[in-house]
Automatic annotation (TrEMBL):
Protein name, per record: PsbP C-terminal domain-containing protein
InterPro entries the record matches: Mog1/PsbP_a/b/a-sand, PsbP_C
Annotated GO MF terms: calcium ion binding
Membrane-spanning ranges: none
GO CC, any one term: photosystem II oxygen evolving complex
Length: 223
């Protein structure tokens, strides 16, 4: 059967994104570059399983040349897992269950960027289906907690070095409490499904959107 509801463990993961500490392991290297302030049929069951079960990791941060990071951003490159991206200056690394790495604003709790990676037997993200279907499935069933009203606002596909990247924008509303405006990019390669997600409150979206879009568009695999 192609279609299946999201597994309970996957649905609680998004809800726990900022609660429990991750188990850390030695032996990996991350370089953190700090700047100056300034149509195939989708196997939905496998897509959900692939995107939801993230492996935790410890990466040892090393200071590198600030000249490589644009003004207003830090650059993070995971030399072991083979990805890199930019994130806003001043955000701090935190440990979060199910995430490979997370940076967040210590003042604005809804502003963060995270990367998760899971095993997959798909060779490319397009093997999961077209971009709209993948975006709808991930936004509504993996990247948000149950009970939220989720709307996918836009999608964009890009090709880099022969790999397809799916980018999408969505909002998640929690009753009358708040709305989080989010961006994500996913890519699959060498048996791994990578997801970078970032966002802010709807109230601060106009102020933050350019920086968050830079983070999403900077994400790329390095192998």
């Amino acid at each position: 059967e192609k279609m299946q509801t999201l597994a309970p463990t996957a649905r609680v993961q998004a809800k726990q994104q900022a609660s429990r500490p991750v188990c850390r392991h030695q032996g990996r290297v991350r370089t953190v570059v700090r700047a100056q302030a300034g149509p195939v049929e989708v196997d939905r069951r496998q897509l959900l399983a692939t995107a939801s079960v993230a492996a935790a990791s410890l990466l040892t941060p090393l200071q590198a040349s600030a000249a490589k990071a644009p003004k207003g951003f830090n650059a993070c490159e995971d030399l072991n897992d083979g990805y890199k991206f930019l994130y806003p200056f001043g955000w701090q690394e935190v440990t979060v269950t199910g995430a490979d790495v997370v940076f967040k604003d210590v003042v604005e709790p809804l502003e963060s960027v995270s990367v998760t990676k899971t095993k997959t037997d798909k060779q490319d993200v397009s093997d999961f289906g077209d971009i709209q279907l993948v975006a709808d499935t991930l936004a509504k069933e993996v990247l948000t907690a149950p009970g939220q009203e989720v709307k996918v606002l836009s999608t964009n596909a890009r090709d880099l070095n022969g790999r397809n990247y799916y980018e999408f924008e969505f909002t998640a509303s929690n009753s009358n409490r708040y709305t989080r405006h989010q961006l994500a990019v996913v890519v699959a390669a060498n048996g791994t499904f990578y997801t970078l997600t970032t966002g802010s409150s709807e109230k601060r979206w106009e102020k933050m959107k350019d920086r968050l879009q830079t983070s999403v568009r900077s994400f790329q695999l390095t192998f």
